[in-house]
Amino acid sequence: MTPAEREALARLEDRPKTIRRGAVLMEEQARSDELFVVQQGMLMCYVLLDDGSRQVVRFLFPGDLFALSALVYGRSPDTVVAVSNAVVCPFDRGQIAGLATRHPRLFSLILVLNQIERVITTDRLAGLGRTSARVRVATLLLSLRGQMRQAGIEVAASFAPGLTQEEMGDAIGLTAVHVNRMLRQLEDDGLIKREGGRVHLLDEARLVREAGYIDRFEGLDLSWLPPGH
């Protein structure tokens, strides 16, 4: 990025706000005129269904920009809650208009990230309707690790998901009991090992094949982006 682009991005993070684990940052259907960048920690977005159950639609990590719906709607479509202690940076939606006019390449990259997230969400929704519970759990583990890598979190063959089994289940349409059963099954088959809150991927290649997992951060075609100035 050019120095001017770096400065423009830094201005989006000049009002850091600390929130504690479990704190609700935005309520579903609440008025919202701000967008946010995650600076530290982990958050999740969810909606409440008619039967009172919770559907997690997105996990957020450092570097993620969220609440883009504020650009087109006056209310938040989902609730955003901190999964861990976190730092977020709110900024006015008018700053996005400034990026569009003064830094079109940065604005284009925001569109790119938004499309990556859309495809990841599509993958998860498709999985809810067509894959087994075991595959859903395996895919979620791989997806979380992929997001952590993109956020610059150091992960290798082991990582800490930082989620309860209930939270995992709410993301993939399973009960906490069912999630635990599938995790034990993956352990019994030598694919993973759980220890001290961490998940060790013992046979990642086989896990990827079994889950049919596609890393949506790979294979990007960004040749169309305008040059930096």
UniProtKB/TrEMBL annotation:
SMART domains: cNMP, HTH_CRP. Residues 1-84 form the Cyclic nucleotide-binding domain. CDD domains: CAP_ED (cd00038). InterPro entries: cNMP-bd_dom, cNMP-bd_dom_sf, Env_Response_Regulators, HTH_CRP, RmlC-like_jellyroll, WH-like_DNA-bd_sf, WH_DNA-bd_sf. Keywords: DNA-binding, Transcription, Transcription regulation. Residues 131-205 form the HTH crp-type domain. It comes from the Bacteria. PANTHER family: CRP FAMILY TRANSCRIPTIONAL REGULATORY PROTEIN, FUMARATE AND NITRATE REDUCTION REGULATORY PROTEIN. This is CRP-like cAMP-binding protein.
